[in-house]
């Protein structure tokens, strides 16, 4: 994983290889641990994969718009791994990437909804 991450950062990895590797890495993470020591290693691998994917999505080197099946696979993986903090962060990153204006819309709608209530309370005072 670390080798692929370094090759990816150096932009040596071909674009068609990355989605295949991501699918492979997700399958490896989903194969259950067999012992307690393996659980630690499994969690570490999940964290590494999540951080790698988050970096690739933020840097736009992994184009999920062209590969919607991979996006669904990653989202399903994140839902399965909700006990891992990095998986939740990756899921949030994917959701914000799909709806980049959602945070702005939420703030503007909450501001708009609060302004009428202020005007109503001012009317009641008068």
Brief descriptors of the model:
126 residues, mainly alpha
Short description:
With 126 residues, the protein is mostly helical. It is built from 6 helices and no strands. It starts with a helix and ends with a helix.
Question: How is this structure best described in words?
Answer:
With about 130 residues, the protein is mainly alpha-helical. About 75% of the residues lie in helices and about 0% in strands. The protein has six helices and no strands. It has helices at about 1-10, 15-30, 35-60, 70-80, 85-100, 100-125. The longest helix is centred in the last third of the chain and has 24 residues, at about 100-125. The radius of gyration is 20 Å and the shape is globular. It starts with a helix and ends with a helix. The model is unreliable at about 100-125 (pLDDT under 50).
Order of helices and strands: HHHHHH
What's the main sheet like? Answer: none
Q: What shape does the CA trace take?
A: globular
Rg, please? 20 Å
List the helices and strands and how they pair.
Blueprint lengths: L1 H8 L7 H14 L5 H23 L9 H13 L4 H14 L3 H24 L1
Helix pairs in contact: 2-3, 2-4, 3-5, 4-5
